[in-house]
Design brief:
The protein is of the alpha/beta class. It is 44% helix and 12% strand. The strands form 3 sheets. The protein has a 4-stranded parallel beta sheet with strand order 3-2-1-10. It has a 4-stranded parallel beta sheet with strand order 4-6-8-9. The structure holds 3-O-methylfructose in linear form (3MF) and magnesium ion (MG).
Length: 343
């Protein structure tokens, strides 16, 4: 079926299979080789962490950073790809062990903002003005460890500093309720967009919704998306799937909750999302997967998405309207199930 959706993923989605309980099980794939997979798998956009584009970013001079980011732009253009987003990977640096923007230590807060500005610099060279903030360690293991009211002011200050640094940068906050922290300060899109309104330029602050993160918050991902879409603030997505309230699983899109996936596709269709944003995937191959088939989770997710677009477009809207008018939601539910099952 012909659609105008464009797909993206981050290089971290092709990975060695380590988990908290065991080491890597597949060889590392070099960055250039990862790039060579994108088009073959049906993808046009790359989601970058700042240090994917410029390794050891903190040790680089401004000139080196610019040069390397430019080289990366050439490398992706050579593969026919564009950079969709760039994200400061604050959570891997030892300085950010207890958070960056909300760390108790003012020197760490300063570092986190400076690192984010470097990330903006990388994005500029990559031709990308959309920065994703996954606020990984901005939260607490125990509530008494930080002062939450101050933390929320510091988040606004950090975002204001980034917005002031570059007049064109747009920030999409990626909410997640927990993991790695026990309690994250920005657990839902409602929190993210309320925070956005308190910044110096709310028009440049929106959201990215990840399916699994919404499920981890006990919420319906399509309703989270609708909340952001109604405000014109859904600037990217991380589609994947999640089996209940566990660790963040990043399963293939639709693999655990097919009907929920259908409803995410429906809401994106209803909003004409294909015209404005990339369909980003944030999926992990199962650890059991052999190296030669450790990218199929990406092409499968894309295929499931497109199959669900077809399902959304071929749902009998006339019958749907009648069932809604009659308030016969039992019939509507059965019609959805029959349509999804092809019976
Ligand atoms: C964690 C995530 C992250 C972010 C990514 C982009 C590793 O649960 O989803 O993926 O999406 O870092 O900022
Ligand atoms: Mg994500």
């Amino acid at each position: 079926m012909a659609t105008n959706y464009r797909f993206s993923f981050g290089p971290w989605n092709i990975h060695e299979g380590a988990d908290p309980f065991g080491p890597t099980v597949r060889p590392s794939v070099e960055f250039a080789r990862k790039l060579s997979f994108y088009k073959k798998l049906g993808f046009d956009g790359v989601q970058f962490h700042d240090d994917d584009a410029v390794p050891n970013i903190e040790e680089k001079s401004a000139a080196e950073l610019k040069k390397q980011a430019k080289e990366m732009k050439r490398a992706i253009a050579g593969e026919g790809l564009v950079a969709e987003i760039v994200a400061p990977r604050l959570w891997e640096n030892s300085k950010g062990i207890d958070g960056g923007y909300t760390a108790n230590d003012p020197a760490v807060r300063k570092w986190a903002i400076e690192r984010s500005k470097r990330c903006v610099d990388v994005g500029r060279e990559l031709g990308c003005n959309l920065m994703v903030l996954w606020l990984a360690r901005e939260g607490t293991y125990i509530r008494e460890a930080k002062r939450a009211i101050d933390a929320h002011h510091w988040l606004v200050e950090a975002i204001d500093a980034i917005l002031a640094y570059d007049k064109k940068i747009r920030i999409a906050i990626e909410p997640k309720p927990n993991e790695p922290m026990d309690h994250a300060y920005i657990p839902t899109i409602g929190h993210a967009l309320a925070l956005a309104e308190r910044t110096r330029d709310p028009r440049r602050v929106g959201g990215l919704i990840e399916t699994a993160h919404a499920i981890l918050a006990g919420l319906d991902p399509s309703d989270e998306m609708a909340f952001a879409l109604a405000a014109n603030k859904l600037w990217s997505v991380h589609l994947n799937d999640q089996n209940g309230l566990k660790y963040d699983q990043d399963k293939a899109f639709g693999a655990a909750n097919l009907r929920m996936a259908f409803n995410q596709v429906r809401v994106l269709e209803a909003a004409g999302y294909a015209k404005t944003g990339f369909v980003g995937l944030d999926v992990k191959a199962m650890r059991t997967q052999r190296a030669e088939v450790a990218t199929t989770h990406l092409s499968n997710s894309r295929r499931i998405f497109l199959a669900l677009v077809e399902k959304a477009r071929t749902f009998d809207t006339k019958a749907e309207k009648q069932m809604i008018a009659a308030r016969d939601y039992e019939a509507l539910e059965m019609a959805v199930i029959k349509h999804l099952m092809g019976i």
